[in-house]
Amino acid sequence: MHFQEKLRGFRHRGDTTPQHDGLSGFQEKGKEREREEYKKSLDCRGKTTSAWTGPSKQISAAELTHSEQSNPQELGTGIIGVDMWLSLVLLLASLATQAATSREREWAQHGASIFADLTPREMRAVRDYLHSRSELGLVSARDKSLKKNSILLMELHVPRKHEALRALDRGQAKPPRQACVVIQFANQAHPNVTEYIVGPLPFPDSHQLKTFKGDRPISFESRPISSVEYEHVDAILNKIAKKVNKILHESTGFTFSNCTDRCLTFSDIAPRGLEPGERRTWIMLQKFVEGYFIHPVGFEVLINHKDLDPEKWTVEKVWYNGQYFDSVEELVEKYEMGTISKLKLPEHDEQDLYSTYIPRGHSNTHTNIHGPKLVEPQGPRYQVDGNFVEYAGWSFAYRVRSSAGLQIYDLRFNGERVAYEVSLQEAIAFYSGDTPAAMQTKYIDAGWAMGTSDYELAPGIDCPEIATFVDMYHFYDTDKPVRYKNALCIFEMTTASPLRRHFNSNFKGGYNFYGGLENHVLVIRTTSTVYNYDYIWDFLFYQNGVMESRVSATGYIHATFFTENGLNYGTRVYNYVLGNLHTHLVHYKVDLDVAGRDNSFESLELKYVNFTNPWSPKHTIKQSILHRTQYETERSAAFRFGKKFPRYLHFYNQNQKNKWGHQKGYRIQFNSHANSVLPRGWREENGIPWSRYPLAITRHKDSEATSSSIYTQNDPWEPVVSFEDYIRNNENIVNQDLVAWVTVGFLHIPHSEDIPNTATPGNAVGFFLRPFNFFNEDPSLASRSTVIVRPDKEGKPKVQRWTPEVVGHCVSDKPFFYNGTYVGV
Questions:
Q1: Residue 360: exposed, middle, or buried by beta-carbon count in 10 A (0-12, 13-18, 19+)?
Q2: N or C end of the chain, less CB within 10 A?
Q3: Start and end of every Copper amine oxidase catalytic domain (predicted)?
Q4: Looking at the structure, do residues 269 and 333 belong to the same domain, yes or no?
Q5: Residue 45 — pLDDT band, cuts 50, 70, 90?
Q6: In which domain, by residue range, is 621 found?
Q7: Is 542 a catalytic residue?
Q8: Same domain, yes or no, for 609 and 758?
Q9: Are residues 134 and 204 located together in one domain of the fold?
Q10: Catalytic one among 129, 533, 542, 631?
C-alpha cells in the first residue's frame, strides 16, 4: 500500500514549478462563470428564459402567496403573453439584485475565515519565524541527514469553540489565527517530536508548547517517515539488491538496480515493529509497472532503521517464496546450494498487463459516444466565497486538515446552526495474510498525512465538469507550501429520482393531481490517495435539511504473494497474487448544536404490546409501541460493536420545541457494515479505541479535539491520543454540549472483479444527519423546483411550476484537461 516514489520519472512535493498563491476571488469568478453559462444557454436555446444569477432569497409563505402563487406559469392551457413574460423576467432580475446586495452584506459577517486553512503566505511567515529562532536550530527538511531539527507539518490551529462562537454569534472580534507546527528535534542528545502553536498570523511573533490530554509525550520513534528517510531506505535496498540480484532476476525477470524497463520497486508496511520504541519495517518488492501494488514478487525484508545513522541500519529477516531467513547471506548461500524452494514467475507479458486501465474485453455498450453529462442550464445555484459555501438554505465553512482531511464547521440551515463541526478524524485498514508483510499490515492513515493526499480531481470523472474546483495548499515534509491543483470540488447535482412525489389517482382512468420535486443536492468532495487506496470523501446537502457524510473506497487492493495457506486470508486474483482480506473503518467527529448547545440524547426503539380490542372485546390487539431510552452518562452512551445497536439515535434540545410541541432534534442514521478489527486491548488495538464503538457520546471539551493523531500509526501500543480517555470519566450528558463520535466501515474480501481496481458500488458507507421534529414541516417546500399538475374542467393538464419552462441543454465545449502535478510555491 504505502510506497516511497523512487526517482524514476515521478514528481515530488518539493518540485519548484512556479504557481500562483491564494484562494480568493471565487465569488467574482463564479459571477463571470454564471454570465458565460447564461450566454451559452441563450445561444443554445435560441430564446430567452429567466436566469437566476444571484444568491437565493428566502421567501416567506406570505410573500409566495402574493408574488408567485397568484401567477404561476400555467402550461398546457395556453401561451404566456409577452408582456407577462417580460414582467416576470424583470421581477426576477430585481429580486436577484436585491438578494445579491443583501447577501453581500451578510457574507461580510459570515466568519468562515476562522476555519480557513493556512494560506501560502501564512505558511511562509510561520516557517520564516521559526527558522529565525536560533534556539530551535532548524534546518531544511530536505537536508540529507536524519540528525537534524526540521519542520515536519504545519496546519491551522483551530481556536477554542467558545472563542469562535463569540465571533460567530455575538459579533465580537475573531480570535487570532494560529498555526500548529510539528517539529522533529533529532540533532540533540534526546531526540523528540514537539508541537507548537505559532501566532498571531499573518505576522507571528511567538510560539508556545502544545500538549495532549494527560500530557502524554510524543515518542520519537512514532514520527511519520520523511522523504529523506525513504531515500536512505532506498539506499539500503540497493545494497541488499546487489547481493540478491541473481536471485531476483532468475525468479522474477526483474531487478531492483541497474535495470531498464524491468525494474522492481517497493512498498513499506506499518506499524513499524511489535512494541513501543521500535522502528522496524517490513518491505515488499513489486514489479515497477503500472499498478505495481498488485504485482508482488515473493520477496520481503525486515529492516531495523531506528538509528539516526543509516550506516547502522540492519536487515533482521528475509522472506522468499514462503521461506524465512535470518539474513540476506543465508538466503544467498542456500539458494546457491539448491537447498531451498526456488521461485520462477511466468514470463512477464507487457501486452497482458492485468493492472492497467486500458480497455479490454467485449464492450457491452455498442457505441463510442459520450454518456449523459451534468449541466447547469441557467448557471450555478450555490455561492462560494473563500471557504464559505451557501446553498438552498445551507451554509457552512470548510477546510482540509493536512493530517486528517475534509472538515465542515458552523453548519447551518436557514441561519440556524445544526452542527458546529462535522469532521473526518481517521481511516484505518487492518489486514490479514500469510506473508510477514501481510500479517503486519495495519494501516492508520492519519500517520501518512492523509489530508495531504488530496491530488488533482479529473473533471467529468472525479467531479462534473460544471463543478467549482479549488486548489489546496499543504506544508508537510517540505520547505515551502505545496499547491495541490483542483484538489477539492463543489457542485450541485440531480439524483435522478424525486425528493418526493405523489400521483393521486381518481381510480377512473384519470387523476386528481400529480406533485413532485426534483432531488438536487450540493456536494463538497475531495479524495485521499494514500498510496494504493483512493478514498472519495463527500458531504452532501439536501433541500430538506438532511446532510449525508459518505466515503467511497476505490483504487488498488493491497496484494501479497500467493501461498496455499494464503487462501485462509483472501482470494487468488492472479496466478501468483493474493488479494488480502481487510476491514476499513472511518471515524468522524460530529459536534451537534441542535437548537442551541444544551442537548440531550435518547434512543427510540419498538416494543410489542397486547391489549383488548376496544371495538371487539373478544379479540386482542398486538402492535408496536415507542420505547424511549434516555442516556445520562458518557459510558451509557458508548455503544459497543457486537451489542444491540438502537435504530433511532436522537439528539434534541429539551427547551426548544416545534409548532407541534415536540422537542427540536436531529438524528444520526447509519449506512455502515462496520465491526471491530481486533480484540479489545490487543496490542495495536490500543491505538484505535474509537474502533470499539459505532457511536459514542461525550461532552464537548477543547482538550478532546481529535480522536487520533499522526503518531498512532508508528506507535499504536502507547498512543499520544487515546479516545478511551474521553469516556473514562463518565460525565453527565443531559443538557450539555454533546459530541457524537461515529465509526463507519465495511469488510472487504477481495475478489477477481477487484482487478484492476476496487469499484465504488457497494463500497460506500457513511451516515445521515436527519431532522427529527426540528422543523414544523418539510423545509424543502421552499424549493421553486416543485411541479404540480392538475386536470382542468375539460380534463386537460394544467401545469404549475416556479422555474422557467424551457431549460438549456448545452454541455461545455471545453476539452478535457488534467495535469496531476503538485508543486511548491
A1: exposed
A2: C
A3: 373-781
A4: yes
A5: very low
A6: 389-776
A7: no
A8: yes
A9: yes
A10: 533
